[in-house]
TrEMBL record:
This is Helix-turn-helix transcriptional regulator. It holds the Pfam family HTH_3. Coiled coil: none annotated. CDD domains: HTH_XRE (cd00093). It comes from Faecalibacterium longum. InterPro entries: Cro/C1-type_HTH, Lambda_DNA-bd_dom_sf. Transmembrane segments: none annotated. Residues 8-35 form the HTH cro/C1-type domain.
Amino acid sequence: MSTNMNLLRGKLKERGVTQQELAQKIGMDSSTLSRKLASDGLKFTVGEMHDIAATLNLSANECKSIFLL
C-alpha cells in the first residue's frame, strides 16, 4: 500500500495547510513528516493517516483515493 502524494499535497494546498502546520497539528516533528512524505508515505501508521484525515477534514472517498492505492 502506498500513498497518493500528489493528491495529498493538493489537499494540503486546497485547505491552506503547510507541511509544518500539518506536522504540528498531528503531533509529529516537521522533519519526520517531511521524510515520510518524501518516501511516498509508505511509513505512515494507521493512526497518522486518521490524524491527517481529521486535520484536513477529508471525506471517506478522499481518504481512499489518498491512502488506499
